[in-house]
Amino acid sequence: MVNGPSLLRSGAMATELALSHGDGRIRVILQHAPVWEKGVEPGSGPPQGLKLLRAMISKEALRPTPPTPQSEATNPPSGGNPSLYRGTPPFQWRKRWTGTSWTWGPQNGNRGWQLDEMEEADAWHGRPTGDGPNVWNLLLARGGILIQCPRVVTNDEVGLFRLAWIPEGDSDEGPAKLLRIEAGVSVLQPMEETVPSENVRFLPPMLTSLRCDVLESAGDLDSSEDEESSGIKAIRDAMRP
Prior knowledge:
Radius of gyration: 20 Å
Distance between the termini: 45 Å
Strand content: 35-45%
């Protein structure tokens, strides 16, 4: 689920992403505030972008007591329900994932897809730090949560807001599950003026695309596929003497 992007009274933009599984869900709210380039007096003109100001993460469950490491240790979640504080090793993300995908866009509307194989470029969950320097990321091993979003959103390109979650790992009850959501957001687009004006006005931030994936593990990647991962190669190169 995505809620927003929406404007707050403070002038910041809020984008909410949520994923649910069983009796639990992960909810993330990302706020971006107006920012000006270095050397430009803030407020002297229109902002050049929106910079990440705050990230809020909520682990929620429909249970008699709030989910905590202690409560889950005392009363482990039943089958089909997530353990919100389960340890998730990094290699758990590097699996062969299959399942279904749902996409939405202003041109093509709602569409459903069957994913029998995922290309490396599409497996962004396997690259925690993202694909560029403008990506802010947070990987929580306790719970298997990955967040990616732009450090600064500008009108030059669509900002991608991403949330991935492994609510269940491989077990005797079934394969690991992976949920993903990706929202494209456009900001600071000039408003077309029918009457000339000295004021600069912008359209509200808009959701330009949405994708939701429900996947499960179909086994490990073979050595050749794993070697092609830019993230894995970067880690191995850094560890070489």
